[in-house]
Structure formats: structure tokens, C-alpha cells
Amino acid sequence: MDQRQRAARLLERIEAELNCLGLWQNQLPSAQALASSEPFAMDTLDFHQWLQFIMLPRMWEIIDGEHPLPQKIAVSPMATHVFHDELEHHESLIRILREFDTLLSGTDPLANDV
Length: 114
Fold this sequence. Notes:
Layout: H1 3-20, H2 31-34, H3 47-64, H4 76-82, H5 87-105
Helix pairs in contact: 1-3, 1-5, 4-5
């Protein structure tokens, strides 16, 4: 399985985990909330909303359009920060995001945090 296929499988796992955690939403946030220029849209969206409505669609566009995959990505440190009070509950999501970061960047962004 090549990197693009592995990335697609990880995106599917992220979607499934958000759903399992009850974080998947059926209602799209406002256009204004989605237009945030802040990292992770932290001024207008919760982290899980950013994953669902910004990161996942952008990554699917890259994969489906066969565009080059990003070579530097570090989403798992933000997930660890956001869910710090509930790490055990969100452990699987953070682990999948860490795998995704490592697949695309070639390094583990949380290696120094362990």
C-alpha cells in the first residue's frame, strides 16, 4: 500500500473515531466560522469541528485530486493539547492523528512529549 492509500485509510479511521466519540456533526458551521484564518480555526471552531469541516475535506481533495501530499503536518500535538483533560477518552483519536502526522512528515511530532 502506498503513502496515498495509507493516508486515505487513516482519514477514514479519523472519521470513524470522531463518530465513535460522538463528535461527528451533521450541521455545517457557518461560512464565517469556516473562513477563519487562525490556526485550527481556533477562534471560530472547536478542534473536532476543524478536523471534520476543514482538515478532512482538504485532505480528501488532495488525495482524490492526486495532488502532492503535505510533507509537514503536526495535528496530534494540538489534539493532545485540546483534549489534555480527557486524554484517556480521546487516546485512539490522538493515536490515529499521530500516525497520520508520522506518515506524511516522516517523524513523530509527539516524540519529545513522551
